[in-house]
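Morning. Coffee machine broken again, so started the prediction first thing and wrote up yesterday's gels while waiting. Chain of 609 residues, entered below exactly as on the submission form.
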Amino acid sequence: MPIRYDIGVEDPKNHRVQVTVDVPDLTGSTVDLVLPAWMPGSYDIRDPARRLRGLRVSQAGSGRELAVSKQDKARWRVTTGGVDHLEVRYEVYAHELADDGNDATPEHLYVNPGALLVYVDGREREPLEVAVHVPSPWKVYTELAELGRSPARFRARDYDELVDSPIDCGLPVELTIHPNGIPHRFLLCGQGGNYEAHRLESDVGRIVEAAIRIMGGSPLQHYTFFCHLQDARAGRKGGLEHKASTSLIVSRNNFRPPEDYRDFLALVAHEYFHLYNVKRIRPRVLGPFDYTKENYTHLLWAMEGSTDYFCHLILLRAGLRPVPKYLEDLGKSIRTYLSTPGRKVQSLEELSFNAWIDLYRPFEDSPNASVSYYLKGDLVTLCLDLEIRRRTEGRHSVETVFQTLWKEYGVPDRGLEETDLRTVADRATGLDLREFFEHYVSGTAEIDFNAVLGAAGLRLEGQEHPPGQEDEPIPGWLGVKVQDDAGRVRVTTVYDDGPGRRAGLSPDDEIVALDGQRVTGADLSKALLAYPPGSSVQVTVFRRGYLTTIPVETGKPPPERLLIVPLDDASPLQRRVHEGWLGVPWAPRKAGAGGSSTTVPAGSGQAPP
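Came back before lunch.
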């Protein structure tokens, strides 16, 4: 007999979910019940056991209670006394509309099994059944195999599949599309939303088709997008991937204007590509999982950063992001990366390994110590792509590498060893990429983006002023990141390579005056126009309640924008690489014009003080 879970919500306005676990066929004098400490795809110890209460265990049938002792934060040991059939009862507080949380309201129930359902230690590989009891006329949606409908009953091959299969209950707007003949459900859970259903169906379908074209096939028979709509100011946003579904948490008004909608489509593309990369092409340690502690790998950069790179390619190939916009977004990423001193401190392998204590737990000095492995992994995958295209004269690309990974590791669903990625890249392309991986994956070598983009007949061009302000002076740079706190200027980060660090500015300083003249959050940037790079200024701050003045010599700010522009002339190989990568012909820059089809403003935004 399988272990069976019953999930119910007796009083959803109090956000509590009741769970009963039927555990048959026991042997031995004790059994341990464990709730995972983390959710696959979210590399952070979340400890959902803090929301669990009232765990009681009894002999099935008789109701006789058995002794339970807690062994650690999420493990309960039951003394069975020889009993071979148990009934476990507890409840979980569920008021967290998050991609890795549980949420119970009078309108909706969302279940992440890994944050709700304990497993029986040692029996994680056994088949399981789940029954969900919800009020009529709610429907129950999941990608688990259906066993029955009154109540809704499902079957999982094992606990890993159960954790990988969220359950959504309620009355969502249900859209269905069949890209490449494969049924995909898109569920819009939550009231309101400025989406257009037909456009959403069309665009998501194009994303799916582009992903399948890139990878050369699909493992799916069906798929579900759970899209939860919430207030723009509330809770966490983002997505969490699963083998046959994904959970998206977005603002209900995130479908307009076009820039917001493009961001939404990028999230959809990123999470969808994960069905290949990380759910099937994966490090060996990421399945089967150890749910009680961190699962370390040096390959998260390729699982997440490379997925970011492919999500941009998917939108490009689907015709949902024009080439100028693609290059504009690339320029923004490059500008952010070059403005982060921590890029020089940790390698991609180190960033991946340290994710559990780094990316998800930033603090004031994080930009000096690290950089997101999403961002750097995206850019290094770009570099690898153009390196392969250049050296193979356009015959191969990073797509070749991931198609090979898919055939050799994804389809048979076997995990990568830590060194397999480079080995596959070499074999798939016929190149020796050892030096590239040593410099940019294992090492912290600075990326020469002009050399990278030059392979495709492009280069970076910095601009120091926003559009229309070319005649304005360049403001001085303090080398700090600040937050406007109701008009008060609070320093949140002091960059290691900036003038503020050399002068002695500190996080949590409140900047109140420059040369004795009061400044606020609204006018600090304007005030710095009076202190061009190389100027001396007395910066007055409140530091832990005391007033102090610090002399600072202003520096030159990072470029206000980057332009990605064509080279003055491009060789036949550069043009071939350009066309294979972007899908449009290389075109020279028009004389006297601001740009051409591949000349776009990139990285626009106010430079930090």
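Residues 3-171 form a domain with the Immunoglobulin-like fold (CATH 2.60.40.3650). Going to sketch it on the whiteboard this afternoon.
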